[in-house]
């Protein structure tokens, strides 16, 4: 019990909560300036999310890919890499799943797992390219992953346009039923919200993230590489191999987000003019969650809830959805600037001591 | 002559940080024209006290008088205005700028109604100052072209340029060569002769005996004593500083030499610039001896250590451990072949600061069967291992789950030594093993190194501290520009001779030749 209280009173746990609060407050101020009613807006947001079974289910659907991409970015962070390429890996995951889902025909117990695996591998491979370039050629992964994002987008558009396009539609053929991972009975309970097995895999991924990094030998190696590459080298850990491996796992996680969007939600892949945004949101989720398993999980829930609820705000209080992006943006801003929060905590809750040095 | 005027007096200074009292009711008095040493172990509170004087911290209690006027020093700018200057341990210089540009930064002489910097005047002023105090600094040189010792003089000039009369030196000799140290001592004497007053923060007894007039000893935030140097001796000072009797002399029985265990022959290694950092270096290390590698920093020592541990590729030559060739092998292969390293930079190579002590203790052995099962870490075994080492090597840490970052420098080093010695190596390489540590920790670490030697291990000691080399080594090899230029017996040599060999090639008198591997 004592431990529990400690965990919640620790600064590290308090900071994100206050950041969220300040972000919501700032959003409210902006709404007031714009002439909107913030209380009504936040009320409609909550109503949108929890108001009926369908929307609740759809909120879960919105959260799922964010857990995956958040974990993907966090995993890379833990290994000392800044993976901005979750977006591209997400798209490659979608593409891999679509190719298998549309072009081969197999019994469900082979088809669905194969589609998932191939999509995950596509994502992982895409991440690994950046990892390889860093390890073998010393190219900064930030640059390569950004470039690979665009390559992924256009490569995937090309594959769909030229090989998988359903005539007259801006998307691929629908994937076979045998490849879909939807959960029919649960969807029916939640008024046909698009519920799929990816949600459970997302929770498994959170557990995997924790167990792999903190309990296994390979995870230990990757964390040493991420925390101090020089010490890793001296300890006999192959840093370059670690970088490639980490980018592969990171890419796999991001790829799985895309896989489940195709096999669980849309059941096809649309030709897209711009990135989906899930990969970039993953960066924010990882940041919000401080790269911890629970943090990323909660961060994805917050992010998904706000994003999905934004529609409710615009419907119920006439607030444009851009405002909710401002709220999300300011939450991230406050999380990323913990100094401001600490100052705020001290001003508000702490006794002011003369000349204290932090 | 009348009693020297008091220029700084700090009365009843108390400063608390969360969890500790850094300064507890401290009194400190600096007279005009004296060199006043502030002696204490790491974390004793001596730097805190001087940071208060320089305005970097505010004390909770106490008063400060400068020139017999009570003052409130709320920041470094105020301190500078009061004529107080500080030469920090880590220099604060802009490398691509010239000496003069660095010195005038922030208080530039102006021309054209303050629109432009009067560079001509600035160079002249800096040149004059340098001459006046015998600093011998070229005002036109770029910082990245001059030596560390010169950079420190630039820092001194910076304070003088701003009109400092009271100079605080924070561990000034930590980064200097023996020659540079003696030059610095001359400079300090020059400064006090011209009316400056100096506070010297240090934990080196030798320097205090050589230069200081008065010494104030601080231990755990309290002033233990303040006395004239003339009436004391190093043993007494060490005892006051540590709070118990310390033996400055090592008890070392005669070395019992065994078989050669590390044989380095004609080793060529390229440095960062692509030039040869090691030029056909050869030496042999036998069981039961400590071989000291003496030399000025940057003469190939780092490259030698990196080549020996597999961190740097070997261009030519051979490294044999117990007869097995390991040149060019991976760090892990070499580690398994029997080499352990106490690295030069414990934060960079020795520890993962964000990891708990228990994980740092298995940094190189985590993959071995006793620490993991089926790919999963066996934390029971890891905890047991860490608990045992912490106890055996007296690593003061709250728990084995504490992050390495939270440990003091001495205890971090003890943790590394515990880990390396526990690997039971044939060859233990100790690179700068006591850099930045206090007397108590140094004593502990030296004892452990000698213990390893007495157990029949071979110890290779690489250090830039001559005193350490002379004290520990059974044999000394001098490295200069990537070559072993000579070998001497520590009993038959001294600082001066070694210092000369380290800077320009000079054969030692007497018969000891360079030992070659065959």
From TrEMBL, chain A:
It is found in: Cell membrane. It comes from the Bacteria. It is a multi-pass membrane protein. Its main location: membrane. GO terms for cellular component: plasma membrane. Signal peptide: none annotated. The keyword Cell membrane applies. It holds the Pfam family BPD_transp_2. This is Simple sugar transport system permease protein. One of its GO terms (molecular function) is transmembrane transporter activity. Keywords: Cell membrane, Membrane, Sugar transport, Transmembrane, Transmembrane helix, Transport. The chain crosses the membrane at residues 12-36, 56-77, 89-108, 114-133, 142-160, 195-213, 243-264, 270-289, 296-317, 323-345.
From TrEMBL, chain B:
InterPro entries: AAA+_ATPase, ABC_carbohydrate_import_ATPase, ABC_transporter-like_ATP-bd, ABC_transporter-like_CS, P-loop_NTPase. Its main location: membrane. It is found in: Cell membrane. Residues 8-245, 262-506 form the ABC transporter domain. The keyword Secreted does not apply. Keywords: ATP-binding, Cell membrane, Membrane, Nucleotide-binding, Repeat, Translocase, Transport. It is a peripheral membrane protein. GO terms for molecular function: ATP binding; ATP hydrolysis activity. Pfam families: ABC_tran. One of its GO terms (cellular component) is plasma membrane. Belongs to the ABC transporter superfamily. This is Nucleoside ABC transporter ATP-binding protein.
